[in-house]
């Protein structure tokens, strides 16, 4: 992956490339920003340029770049584990490998994606390496939630804060690359500037169009029809994405009816209850009823 093929965050790409050309590469970086906006892709492109034995030109055919493109570079390692945690054993293995000298390149690059998933023990295990890294080692941490990263970790890394991708760029990408035929304003907003979110929602576009119609009908249909139509949101696996989208749709209708702001409050309360393992069906039932009641009953709120 080349920098030129990654959309968004042009300033960061230029900054990182300047670091490489000036041989001013730090030992540790912390890439921060919304999930799915290209942090990992940019980290890999940065790593490839750090390891390059040529002149960092596009389509370089040096041994390092060929190994990197072939996914078998011995001086590059990416922790990108599935699951909820990155355990101390994984980080301990990294700290043992990091002291070994490079084989192909002059440097070694280690990426820890979703580093907020590291347990406290894993973070403490990494700390010593960040304090005293080998001269040839570069560690890139990537996170969408820096609040759970130890301050001692953050203080030893150069923080690089990524911006969400511009809606115009994202819309173009969705149509030309992802194959969206059309993207509603609400759906575009629900991407939250993230290519990852756009990719995730692509196969569910028809469902989200139905959810948009459902929200529009909250004040037009009786409660029986709403409970029937509302079955479309009873999806445990994707419920938080669905609730986010309902919130986007409600915000879009705020000028039509200010009561939508109270419905957003109910959506947030629903998400909180689900996170505490409340009964799924009962929680969604309650949300549908409260939204319908809010939009169809007289309110004395000031």
Task: Outline the structure in words.
- The protein has 14 helices and 5 strands.
- The chain has 2 domains: 3-161, P-loop containing nucleotide triphosphate hydrolases (Rossmann fold, 3-Layer(aba) Sandwich); 204-296, Zinc Finger, Delta Prime, domain 3.
- The chain is of the alpha/beta class and 302 residues long.
- It is elongated, with a radius of gyration of 23 Å.
- Strand 3 (108-112), helix 5 and strand 4 form a beta-alpha-beta unit.
- A 5-stranded parallel beta sheet has the order 2-3-4-1-5, with helices on one face.
- Helix 1 runs parallel beside helix 2, helix 10 crosses helix 12 (239-252) and helix 12 (239-252) runs antiparallel to helix 13.
CATH superfamily of the largest domain: P-loop containing nucleotide triphosphate hydrolases
Give the helix/strand class: alpha/beta
Question: How are the strands of the biggest sheet laid out side by side?
Answer: 2-3-4-1-5
Order of helices and strands: HEHHEHEHEHEHHHHHHHH
If you consult CATH, what is the topology of the largest domain? Rossmann fold
* C-alpha geometry: elongated
Approximately how much helix is present in the residues?
40-55%
Q: Name the beta content range.
A: 5-15%
Task: Report Rg.
Answer: 23 Å
Tally of individual helices: 14
Largest sheet geometry: 5 strands, parallel
Number of strands: 5
Give the N-terminus to C-terminus distance in angstroms.
55 Å
What's the overall average pLDDT, rounded?
93
Work out the count of structural domains.
2
């Amino acid at each position: 992956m080349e920098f030129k093929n990654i959309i968004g965050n042009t300033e960061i790409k230029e900054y990182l490339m300047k670091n490489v050309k000036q041989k001013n590469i730090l030992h540790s970086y912390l890439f921060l920003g919304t999930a799915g906006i290209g942090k990992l892709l940019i980290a890999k492109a940065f790593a490839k340029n750090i390891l390059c034995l040529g002149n960092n030109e596009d389509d370089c055919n040096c041994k390092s770049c060929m190994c990197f493109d072939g996914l078998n570079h011995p001086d590059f390692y990416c922790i990108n584990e599935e699951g909820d945690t990155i355990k101390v054993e994984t980080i301990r293995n990294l700290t043992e490998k990091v002291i070994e000298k490079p084989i192909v390149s002059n440097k070694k690059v280690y990426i820890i994606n979703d580093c907020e998933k590291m347990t406290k023990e894993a973070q403490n295990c990494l700390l010593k390496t960040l304090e005293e890294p080998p001269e040839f080692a570069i560690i890139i941490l990537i996170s969408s939630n820096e609040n759970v990263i130890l301050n001692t970790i953050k203080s030893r890394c150069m923080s690089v804060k990524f911006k969400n991708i511009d809606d115009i760029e994202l819309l173009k990408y969705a149509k030309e690359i992802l194959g969206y035929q059309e993207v509603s304003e609400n759906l575009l907003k629900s991407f939250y500037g993230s290519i990852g979110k756009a990719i995730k929602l692509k196969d569910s576009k028809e469902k989200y169009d139905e959810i948009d119609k459902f929200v529009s009908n909250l004040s037009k249909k009786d409660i029986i029809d709403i409970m029937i139509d509302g079955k479309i949101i009873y999806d445990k696996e994707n419920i938080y994405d669905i609730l986010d989208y309902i919130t986007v749709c409600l915000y879009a209708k705020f000028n039509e009816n200010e009561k939508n702001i109270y419905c957003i409050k109910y959506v947030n309360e629903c998400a909180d209850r689900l996170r505490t393992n409340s009964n799924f069906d009962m929680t969604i039932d309650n949300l549908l009823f409260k939204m319908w009641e809010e939009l169809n009953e007289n309110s004395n709120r000031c």
